[in-house]
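Run log // design_07
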């Protein structure tokens, strides 16, 4: 069994709305299609995704298989739109996981406490096959650190494309 963590495609950024409401940018569909045909994802797998529109739309473009939507796979909750210092906020979130890195942001420890048990349940049920989860960069960075026992790789987080794939053997 291998776990594939797919970061969603490029969204239509609307700084007046929370990122959780953003749709996938139609001009980014080709990037998602390119990932689909790249051979980087398994042919047969159990598929699940975040309920956020940009994630569900990415999953729909990536597979013809059924995709389960799990609320717990959503990104770190942020009730505000884009921050000019977004990267600094994310770094602060990981540096001090029990504190909100910006007003309206969920502490990253709370993200971990909902995400990790949900992923462990999926892996327990589907442990005999590959699993693909479609979601978000910050959540996946946190998840990889938790599953591997390594510190969060914030350099890799900063380099992640939209879409992108992290593989956890």
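design_07 sequence
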């Amino acid at each position: 069994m291998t776990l594939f963590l797919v970061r969603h495609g490029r969204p239509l950024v609307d700084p007046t709305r929370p990122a959780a409401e953003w749709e996938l940018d139609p001009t980014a569909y080709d990037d998602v299609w390119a990932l689909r045909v790249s051979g980087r994802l398994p042919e047969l797998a159990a598929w699940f995704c975040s309920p956020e529109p940009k994630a569900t739309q990415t999953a729909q473009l990536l597979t013809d298989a059924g995709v389960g939507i799990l609320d717990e796979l959503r990104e770190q909750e942020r009730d505000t739109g884009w921050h000019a210092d977004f990267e600094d906020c994310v770094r602060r979130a990981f540096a001090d996981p029990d504190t909100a890195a910006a007003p309206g942001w969920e502490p990253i420890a709370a993200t971990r406490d909902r995400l990790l048990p949900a992923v462990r349940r999926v892996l327990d049920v589907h442990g005999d096959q590959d699993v693909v989860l479609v979601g978000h960069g910050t959540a996946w960075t946190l998840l990889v650190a938790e599953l591997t026992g390594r510190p969060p790789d914030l350099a890799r987080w900063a380099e992640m494309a939209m879409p992108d794939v992290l593989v956890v053997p």
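Helices lie at 29-36, 53-62, 86-95, 108-125, 137-148, 154-159.
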